[in-house]
Fold these 4 entries.
Entry 1:
Amino acid sequence: MAGRPRGVDDSVILRAAAEVIGRVGPTGLTLAAVADEVGLVPGTLVQRFGSKRGLLVALARQSAHEAQAHHERLRQGRPSPLAALVALAEESMALMDTPERFANHLAFLCMDLTDPQLHEYALVIHETQRRAILALLDEAVTEGELRIGTDTAALAGSVQALIAGTGLTWALDRQDTLPERLRRAVTALLSPHARSKEMS
């Protein structure tokens, strides 16, 4: 197979890397597998990223850089801030649609926790998500979906913890789909603070 070093954008390669991680985990990831996914030769990926670690760092960097714009897109076209918040919860786990894929992406997160460079980008993603959640909660108060006086800062932390915990619980008990579980969990958490029970 002939490589096309200038025919495939880096962002396409990095999305393919995320897909391969979902299938085999970060330890099973190889440049050859990613290259095959996008129709390149492994040598092209070596030229662009240097190594498997270089590819993983590039994936983490791109995810961090795109996080804010991604959250902003979720608000567009949604009927309310709380509907956008539910969508944010669902989208944050979109790559983890089976317990096996969840486990493989969780293994990548474990690398983030022990590798200083990867941790830097993971922390950016984490903090960007929290700011997006807080902004949607504040907007929900302003628009009358949540009660005036709601402690949105504390609630934002609870929402973020709930998203992570729901994913792990679902991967263990495997009941329903992850989007369904996230929607129910977020709705239940916000319900006591809501002026209206309608969040979608």
Note: The chain has one domain: 10-193.
Entry 2:
Amino acid sequence: MRRSTIFGPGLASLALAAAIVPAAAQEAIDVTLGVLNDRSGTYADLSGEGSVVAARMAVEDFDAEGKGMNVEIVSADHQNKPDIGSNVARQWYDQDGVDVILDVPTSSVALAVADITADANKVFINSGAGSTELTRGQCRPTTVHWTYDTAALAKGTGSAITEAGGDTWFFLTADYAFGHSLEENTAEVVEEAGGQVMGEVRHPFPARDFSSYLLQAQGSGAKVIGLANAGGDTVNAIKQASEFGITQSGQQLAALLMFITDVHALGAETAQGLQLTEAFYWDQDDATRDWSARFEEMHGAKPTMVQAGVYSGVMKYLAAVEALGSAEDGEAVVAEMKAEPFDDPLFGEGYVRADGRVIHDMYLFEVKSPDESESEWDLYTQNAVIAGEEAWLPMLEECDFSQEAG
């Protein structure tokens, strides 16, 4: 586990600042943020240290010190393993005084952390995992699902490709909760649009050699190979599909979850023309460009939507803690987060629904060709906006925690 300096404006130590605050000053609110993610594996680029940087930026921009808050950030690598993630979460809550866990890519880990958080009456703000179960079958009053989920991804990319003529699909799926959810949600969208699912094959997570899986997909004759995976798995699958000449033979790849770091790693020459759905892109407007420039200066790369979601989630969380004057009661903090809508500089207007699903717009992008790209990170053209009220699954009655909160 890594423990960071306590951050405030200018990234100065709040511990030092507290030492010089007059004794008569109001007692500070102590808050510990825990960023739990993949720091060494297939999801490290899209989350990892960049999510810690985003959390630091949020504490600074919120002016936590000026508002009488002592904020500490700790981080740990869950290695994409539920048992490791669960052990870290329990230690953080039981021994280390962590009040909120952030990020947590890998849905199997996130679902475990959601249960542990509810039992401890702390707060879980997920940005990295995509399973819709976080606000459905395993919804909890202490969970906030901020950035994306598999239903929104399917709504964007799956609908667009099927309606454009890609009406037969074969899925290449990561064999764990996220991959299963993404395949299921996309298959439903494809079939609702009049398309047909011709088969699927599941690969271990993570994987390096996709040759046998891609050959099965090629042999299916489907027009579209849906990649229901993410991070390094998606990058490797696309590279190997290109090497095997699959895309040149007329089959289309659908990257159902892809991040700007993946596109950057592939390069526009390989990734050009791919359609993908995201919640955030650094070059959308002045606010996203300004924030992303600061992030890149600190981290050395443009932010992913996961890292942007960590920032926005921390901002909303700290506002709720300030309003309550305490971070002790997790259910009360989440209820406060749901009490008012937000107008976020990175995600626009939105709100936290009663089931913990954050409602905001999603966007359908297409990767530019090398000729269209004007700089290293100039990679997307925006093709469509998916309005927040249309992007997400409807709330289940049993996950409506508004009466409990009231």
Note: The chain has 15 helices and 16 strands.
Entry 3:
Amino acid sequence: MTAAKHELRARAGELRLAGKTYDEIVAELGVSRSSVSLWVRDLPKPQPSPERTRRMRKAGWESYHRRQELLRGQVKAAATAEVGPMTDRELFLVGVGLYWAEGEKDKPHQLRERVTFVNSDPDVIRVYLAWLSLLGVEAERLRFRVMIHESADVAAAERYWADLAGVGVASLDKTTLKRHNPKTVRKNVGEGYRGCFVIRVLRSADLYRRVEGWWYGIVGGASRTE
């Protein structure tokens, strides 16, 4: 063995004892993997340092999360395609269920019979507005209001919801501000936090009664399929 190879072998041993992998030694010395394997095979397998372990674990988790995100995206895209275009009847039924799940409802001790809907999800608001339009509710009967914590960017939230509803900010009712409590650990913070959007339908007693009846019809129809 030449002197140069002796030096490479000795250096390979040092690197192995320092915790380097075969591939890392190959990359540093510029020799074949088979040579490295031959030179260091009798040395104990090194244990990775805590820092290296953390890096390996982090890299593994990042790879896992990327795979999971790709899988989630594929499942969601396939599910979206399964829905396809909605008929008016399908939107009608979705809207009834959406209102009865999220909208204001009467209580036995408090009969109001008014249609008011509150939600923080822009897509839910879009579906609800499309439903009201399908029912023929005139735009002039709609009143809009923002509910948001006072520590948030109130003006930006008002612009966002007004744009979504297709109205001017000036046409919104006075925003309801929730007092900030520093002791409360809130997760709905950051640029994406826009509070809730309130949609109220004027002169809606008859509509409320019909929504309630439609819901009972859905419940009855589902019960008959059991």
Note: The two ends are 84 Å apart (CA to CA).
Entry 4:
Amino acid sequence: MKQRTTRGGLRLSEIGLGTAQFGNLYRETTDAEAAGAVEEAWARGIRYFDTAPHYGLGLSERRLGEALRKHPRDEYVLSTKVGRLLEPNPGGEHHRDDDIFEVNAATRRRWDFSADGVRRSIDDSLERLGLDRIDIVYLHDPDDHGQQAIDEAIPALVKLRDEGVIGAVGAGMNQSALPTEFVRRTDIDLIMLAGRYTLLDQGAAADLLPAALERGVGIVLAGVYNSGLLATEHPQPGATFDYTEAPASLIERANAIAAVTERHGVTLPQAAIAFVLRHPAVVSVPIGARTARQVASNVERYDAPVPEDLWQDLTDEGLLPPDETTPQN
């Protein structure tokens, strides 16, 4: 698998493995499924793995760390996130987590983007992962904590990066406005952008992507399927967009795009991956998977050849803006 290099010298495989599902996202994942997904990813050339304390109240970090410990540490890139500290929740072991993960609530999350919170979160993550270092640390959803992120969290991460404790500083969000501010005002290395630059939504092309190119900041493009709508060849009613039921107009648009891709022998999910990798700011596309079979399917979609004239046809039919048609890599 091809790799792309960040300005700090980290080499990320073009496809990464997102591990929210290792934290029992929506339903239970077994230890064997998680381990099998990592092994399949490794066999397929994936060398970038992303997790977070938020995912299953630390379960994803524990499972990913255990699966990666059998592989040479210098051969892969690992990222996790800060901003949600995990604390004991007495009595919670008899209740389900009140978020979207099927785990018990013996632990609870507390927002904390302070410098001390950042350092504590990293220490806790290292313990759960059982690994000796973290390559990339992202601020996780700092949407309502932007000023504290700029004043405290990012400077704390930059200091740790400059001391060699971590490899790169990032922020992960589902919007492009605040990440653009981070890019312009701070010494950040990477933005993990979810859902705002896809076949259906190119909002970040107006602000974040140009700023990232100007400042040499890499974009890790998550949510390439917009949480589900672009994950199937022919989206049906009830498909999700940004984790809620997609409106009929978006389902219709997705199927219109699919009709064009099929004329070129390309499926909608294949086109979804190929489209975002055309942009020169994008350094990796992590895709979530629960099982080895799902990992294999995602890599096969990535490997599928996509003819260049597909993008022009999508533009000619009004399904992509003209600025997104020109080859960009």
Note: Residues 3-324 form a domain with the TIM Barrel fold (CATH 3.20.20.100).
